[in-house]
Structure formats: C-alpha cells, structure tokens
Amino acid sequence: MRGRAEPSSCPTAGRARRTRQEAGLRAGVPLDPDNERHLTGLVLTGGGARAAYQVGVLKAVGRLLADHTPGRVVTNPFDVICGTSAGAINAAALACGAENPRSALRRMLAIWLNLETDQIYRSDSLGVMRTGARWLSTLSFGWMLARMRRDRPRSFLDNEPLGELLEQIMDFEQLERNLDDGVLHAVAVTASGYTSGRHLTFYQSSREIAPWQRSLRQAVRERITNDHLLASSAIPFIFPARRLAVGDYVEWCGDGAMRQLAPLSPAIHLGASRILIVGTGRSYENPPVERDAGYPSLAQIAGHTLSNMFLDSVAADCEQVQRINVAAERLTPELQNHLNIRPIRVLPITPSRNLDEIASRHVNELPSTMRALLGALGVSSRPGHTRGAGLVSYLLFEQGYTRELIDLGWQDTLSRADEVCEFFGLSTHAA
Description:
- The protein is α/β, with parallel strands linked by helices and 431 residues long.
- The protein has 17 helices and ten strands.
- Helix 2 links the parallel strand 1 and strand 2.
C-alpha cells in the first residue's frame, strides 16, 4: 500500500467536548445494545468507482482503533451500517463480515486494489455493441425504426458481471448470524422507486424497529439481498433498474442517491447517536476552467448531473443535524424525549482533492472499447485534459484509479486522526 507511513499509536485526542456517554466508550468494548444512545453508525454514500475512497478511510479508522487496543481483538466499531449506491455494496460487505471486521476489510481491500472494469460491467466489443452502442443508436434513430423501439436497450452499460461478483463475495447468512448474535444492530441500503418516486430504505435489524415513513420516503423491513445492492447502485441511464418487493407490491428501483434528501435519516431512525459519514466528493468542487471550451458535451452534462445527485445532499443534511443539535442542547432531557429529539454527533470525511482531476489521469487505463464509447460522448483522453472526466470518475473501475483513491482516503483520515479518535471516545492515552 502506498502513502505516508502508518502511525504507531493513536495521536492525542482533540479538545472538543464529549458527552459522558462518549467518554465512557472504548474501542474493542461491546456497546450496550439496550442503550441506543451508545450506538455508532456508519453512512457510506454513493459514487460508482469513487467508492474506493471509502475503503481507504475505513482502513485508516481500523488502524487507529487497533493502535488504541494493542494485543486485544478490536470488535466491530459500527452498530448501524447504512449505504447508498456503491456505498451500499461496501456497507453490505462490512455487515456480512462484522464478526471479524479486520478480515472483512482485508477482503474489501483485495477487491478494490485489484479491480478491473470487466468485473463491474461488460466492456468487451460485443457487450458494448449490445448496450452502449445500441443505446446511442436508439437515441439517434430509434424514433425511425419500430424494431429499435420494441427491442431498445435498458441501460448504457451491462452490469451483469457485478451481479456475479456479488454472488461470490456476499454472505447474507453470516449477516443474519451477526444480527442474531448482537455483533451488529442494523444494516440498511437505499434505492429510489421509479414508479412511486419515493426514496426507499430497506433494512434488517436485530430488534423490532417499526418502519418509518416521511414525505417521499419510506422504510421497508426486508432481508437484504444482492438484488437490493444492484438496485441501489443502478446509476440512472448507466445501469439497469431492478425489480424489488416493496410491501405488497413490486417496483422498479434505481440508484438510491436520487432524491436522497436526508442521507443520515436511516442511521438515525435505526438508533445511531453518532455517525461517521464517508462521502465520495467534497461539498464543493473546484475543477479547472477551460477557456473557450465551447458547448458542454454529453459527458460533461452527465458528469455534472451525477455530481449533483451524489454529493450535494450530505453536506446539507449534516448542517441540518447541527442545527437540531443546537436546539436540543437548550431542551431538558424530559422535553427531548417528549419531542423525540436527541443530539446526533456527526463526523463527515470527504476527499481533500478533486476526484475528476485524478480520473482524468487514468482515462487511458479503460478498455479501448470504453474509451471509444465515452469519446463519442465527449470524454477527452488527452493528457492534462479534464473534459468529461466527471463522468469517467464514476465508471473507471481500474487499479490505477482505485488505488490512488484508497491512498487518498487513508491519508485524509490520518490527517484528521485527532477528530477520529475523539469521535470514538478514545482516551487521550493509548490503552
């Protein structure tokens, strides 16, 4: 693994105030399952190939916790694990391996460090001809040809290889055991219903937690399967939608980042009182401006649309939580319980560098058929050019790119080690 040297001990925690409950928590000590105020949540957002960044963050968090408990087994630090889009796949992998988080993280690292595009979607000539090329042809001439209208492709790319990969790596029986044994409190993945327009949260829990419903949002208690992961990660237009059972009816569902107005909501409803959020993009992006760039290409428009869909709501939701916390501090505990309001501590970690720029340096690692297909949409493969790199940053499942994102996640987290240690309630001296 590249990057800065790994630390030998956890740095001194920052001076930020902690609650009495947080001060009593220690890594490696099981949390009281009957006290929801002690539950720690993890929220992993979407972002296609950008989700490699999350694995670097989790690796660094694991190292900090392990340094605090030398010679002891570090148990699963996250009681509630929630994910959206590609983050849902990472979340499910963690939840399925929660009985041995170090081993689960090693498996995730092995996959992301050695990933190839063909493991996620078909990029061979035949596969691209059957999806991407036909999709573009349908957009251009489909209105003229009745046969194209009847036999139109469902998506730009075919992610059947991802389904096969998930079958190999996910152990949902072990997930069930982890919930039954109290290793994990709850897990949730999100998707968007194309039929109803609702944002859907599918969750499993070790205890009876009543489903919740808000405006355009609905929770469904259901056993998580690969179909839920494929639906949650079905980037609109890029990957095909999936049919999922929602109560007593079936709905076509796509990427959970769509219409996700409150990404922290599932973790809060499932009992978490402090939440680590790992995003895949900064709350603001500052790409280089090309002078006289001309009219934006389809790739630029698509990349901008995906960035808005995946990145904007997390920062806004964190700000909302902070405002609620300020109000909650002014209320008595009795009034907090009456109004069902409790302080929620959040720690967001997002990339310190622009991922579009990183992706632009790795475009030529894509298979030649994908480079040609994306080139038709306006993606530039010339060195130093970022035109269309926003779209590529979500589809570039190649080792050079994913390894650089993992390294960035590792470095970003260690640079904030004081905050991370304080978030987990670690003492100022290593145990």
